[in-house]
Design brief:
heterodimer; A: alpha/beta; five-stranded parallel β-sheet; 5 strands; about 15% strand; B: alpha+beta; five-stranded antiparallel β-sheet; 21 helices; 18 strands; rod-shaped
């Protein structure tokens, strides 16, 4: 379905079921092998900044895209987003927020902190599938990333 | 001294010549006016009489008049002799001389001058040959004619003089009568003036006999005020005009009034008995030989009423000020010394009135210089400030959050600041608490909607997969789908249970009881026995005799949650251990639950007690447990915090509870 290099995605999601849903949907876009899942905000920061359990830079390569939940244990999703956008090297990294929260407060905060896109998880199998399909097409097929 | 101006006339005052009479139309017939003495001193009324004339001296007495006749005749004789060669007729100078002497001296001197002139002519002026006794008939006839003429001239001149004198006397009488008339008119005018003054006076004016106090005269204001007719008043004494219960004027006061004048307040009564307050000004005077008191009496009913209503208004405002539920202070500018404070002020700052008056809030240590300057500057700019929030210190050193409102006011030309003070300490605390609760509520609703939605998303989505996998008859996938759905449903169920629990925490449900720590911990251990056994956790509980107080089931919940939390995060600890104890060193006792589990990353400590905050992803918790513990501890007047040397070093939750006591030998009281 797509051409060119596979895209590496860092999925930050504490709900294992939701992570599974994302994994299943993106499998169709040949990026399953490049989907890295971390379950809390601290793990995400450790992965991106090569700290703690992810001190080995070669084991945690820089992703092309971060798919970020907002409600996260330890470090909040907005905080992760702020840290990414404050960092000189990571600032260019596109972050797509994927959350159950449709709160205006979160929406505004996410964009203020530099989110590239804000997606609300639909409470419906069909819609969730469609959303992930559209997301896949847009970000993984059409969107161009720097090399 | 008489209160009246001295008058242009005087009453008869033989009995008391040193005093001037009063101005009134006297009640009795006035003594006759004597003007005789004035007439004597009256200016000359006959024209010319006052002028200095040399002949006046020469004609003032009879002897002088006759001397004048002799001298004048002699002079005329000498002049005739000296000018004998030039003057012809011998009598030429004697005619005018006789006329002059008669005009000035009258008949007698005129006759003398005539006789003397006749003798001189007969013996010296006529030539010697014609002198007596050689006189010719012609000379003799001339002499006789001269003599007759002289006598005639003298007689005519004398008549003229007499007529002139009568005329002068008449003119003088006329002028005198006119003067007298004029004087009487002026006197009447003056009397009328004073009558008008008395009649039109709004004040009552009474003439009262010094002895006995009988009313001699009264003005129109008196009849109007007392309700008696003029005649009735004259039949009364001053004592009968006084109200029955009014103080009687003492003899000393009467003497004082008589001699120096006196002003007193008393109560008089009307004919119908109605009393009215008066101010009496009395002064002694003598009129027509009678010693009396002239009393000017002012009805001060209106003034008394005004005074009373002023006092009433003062009492009203004083009550308003004193009983106001908030503190009020009146300070005088520019120093800010306290002039007046109300009861609420004294209660709030714990001072007595004497300690506060005359001091500034700086002197008392109520306010600090910086804050006071801030208020002063604001007042300088705006004249009034509203709801200025600040902290002030009471006498005992307690700090209060206050809201000040102040206004600059000017009273009697002085500048003051009126400050009203409301103690908002409790309100502030409530506001803070409310804000905290509000924040929590916002987070609560937000989180609940999010956290309840999450499992719903899982359930709905995996139901979709379930349908797909059903078609493929892929049993392992089906199992996986069912697993996700079950987990999500369990999570929702637990979340709802815990939310219900949490909603109860905010209020104390059960009455406070005192329970030994070991009893509460024992109950909690029973509740978490399953998990402890499953992980093989050893629990050690202190034997310190400590009694805690509060809502017993809630206290049990605290330990249950902390024990459960410790057991949950034991990680791969081979010999998991939990210690429940109490530090009873200095200060209040601190309870603790310590474990040797995975510990807490210090970076995330502040999220530990947050509602719906989970530090470990994938664990079964909902993020309510520790939030609930904190809430219960706070309700019991305590605080809670966590200590951990970091991951892998175990955690220690420490907390206090108000009214925790170390009590040896005390038994469970509930």
């Amino acid at each position: 379905m797509t051409s060119g290099n596979p895209i590496a995605i860092l999925l930050v999601e504490d709900d294992l079921a939701h992570a599974e849903i994302v994994r299943r949907n993106l499998a169709a876009f040949r990026v399953a092998n490049r989907l890295t899942h971390v379950a809390d905000g601290q793990a995400a920061l450790d992965y991106l900044f090569h700290e703690g359990d992810h001190a080995d830079a070669s084991a945690s390569p820089r992703p092309d895209l971060v798919l970020l939940d907002l409600r996260l244990p330890k470090v909040d999703g907005l905080e992760v987003l702020r840290r990414i956008k404050e960092d000189g090297a990571l600032r260019g990294l596109p972050v797509v927020v994927l959350t159950t929260s449709a709160a205006e407060l979160d929406l505004v905060a996410a964009y203020t902190h530099g989110a590239g896109s804000y997606l609300v998880k639909p409470v419906d199998f069909e819609k969730f599938t469609k959303l992930m399909e559209a997301f896949g097409f847009y970000w993984l097929a059409w969107n161009r990333f720097p090399d | 001294m008489s209160p009246w101006p001295s008058l242009p006339f005087r009453f008869h005052q033989e009995n008391n010549p040193g005093r001037k009479g009063g101005p009134f139309a006297p009640c009795e017939t006035p003594p006759p006016l004597r003007v005789g003495s004035r007439m004597e001193r009256a200016p000359s009324l006959v024209r010319g009489e006052g002028r200095a004339a040399p002949w006046r001296a020469a004609t003032s007495t009879a002897a002088a008049r006759y001397a004048l006749a002799t001298v004048a005749t002699g002079a005329a004789f000498l002049l005739r002799m000296a000018l004998a060669d030039y003057l012809g007729p011998p009598y030429i100078l004697f005619y005018p001389t006789v006329l002059l002497v008669a005009l000035l001296g009258g008949l007698g001197p005129g006759a003398l001058a005539t006789a003397l002139a006749a003798v001189l002519v007969a013996f010296w002026i006529l030539p010697a040959e014609r002198q007596l006794p050689f006189m010719t008939l012609r000379d003799g006839v001339s002499l006789a004619a001269f003599f007759a003429m002289g006598l005639l001239m003298s007689l005519v001149a004398h008549r003229y003089r007499a007529a002139r004198h009568r005329l002068a006397l008449h003119a003088r009488d006329l002028a005198l009568r006119e003067a007298e008339e004029d004087f009487r008119r002026r006197e009447e005018e003056a009397l009328r003036r004073y009558e008008l003054l008395a009649a039109n006076s709004r004040d009552i004016i009474l003439f009262v006999r010094r002895d006995g106090g009988r009313v001699l005269e009264a003005n129109a204001a008196a009849t109007a005020a007392y309700g008696y007719t003029h005649a009735e008043l004259q039949g009364l004494t001053i004592h009968e005009l006084r109200a029955a219960d009014a103080q009687v004027t003492s003899a000393r006061d009467l003497a004082e009034a008589d001699e120096r004048g006196l002003r007193v307040e008393t109560v008089h009564r009307r004919k119908d008995g109605a009393p009215f307050p008066v101010e009496v000004t009395s002064q002694g005077a003598t009129l027509g030989g009678t010693r009396m008191l002239v009393s000017v009496i002012r009805d001060i009913t209106a003034r008394k009423q005004a005074e009373e209503s002023l006092r009433e208004s003062e009492r009203r405002y004083s009550a308003l000020f004193e009983k106001a539920p908030f503190a009020i202070a009146l300070t005088e500018m520019p120093e800010g010394t306290t002039v007046s404070v109300n009861e609420a002020f004294l209660r709030l700052f714990e001072y007595s009135r004497e300690e506060v008056i005359g001091k500034t809030s700086l002197d008392l240590g109520i306010s600090d210089a910086a804050s006071r300057a801030q208020v002063a500057a604001a007042l300088e700019r705006h004249d009034s400030i509203r709801d200025f929030e600040c902290t002030r210190t009471t006498r005992s050193g307690t700090k209060h959050e206050l809201s000040l409102s102040a206004d600059r006011v000017s009273i009697g030309g002085k500048d003051f600041v009126l400050t009203s003070i409301q103690d908002i300490t409790r309100r502030k605390r409530a506001e803070e608490e409310l804000k905290e609760r509000n924040d929590e509520l916002v987070r609560f609703t937000y989180t609940v909607s999010h956290d309840l939605k999450s499992p719903l998303v899982t359930v709905r989505t995996f139901l979709g997969y379930l349908e797909q996998d059903f078609g493929k008859r892929d049993e392992s996938s089906l199992r996986e789908d069912f697993g996700h759905i079950r987990t999500a449903a369990d999570r929702m169920s637990r979340l709802l249970d815990e939310l219900l629990d949490l909603s109860r925490v905010g209020r104390q449900v059960n009455p406070s009881v005192r329970v030994p720590l070991q009893v509460v911990v024992g109950e909690a251990l029973d509740l978490v026995a399953g998990r402890l056994a499953q992980r093989g956790v050893k629990v050690e509980v202190t034997e310190e005799p400590v009694v805690i107080e509060g809502d017993r089931p809630r206290l049990v919940e605290v330990f249950q949650n902390l024990l459960d939390n410790s057991a949950k995060f034991m990680g791969d600890q081979p010999s998991p251990r939990i210690e429940v104890g109490v530090d009873t060193g200095a200060g209040e006792p601190v309870l603790f639950v310590r474990d040797n589990g995975i510990g807490i990353d210090p970076r995330h400590k502040k999220k530990l007690f947050g509602l719906f905050e989970k530090l470990e992803p994938g664990t079964e918790g909902t993020g309510i447990g520790l939030a609930q513990v904190r809430r219960i501890v706070q309700i019991h007047g305590g605080r809670i915090w966590a200590e951990s040397a970091g991951r892998g070093h175990g955690a220690c939750f420490r907390f206090t509870l108000a009214r925790t006591r170390r009590e040896r030998g005390k038994k469970e009281s509930a």
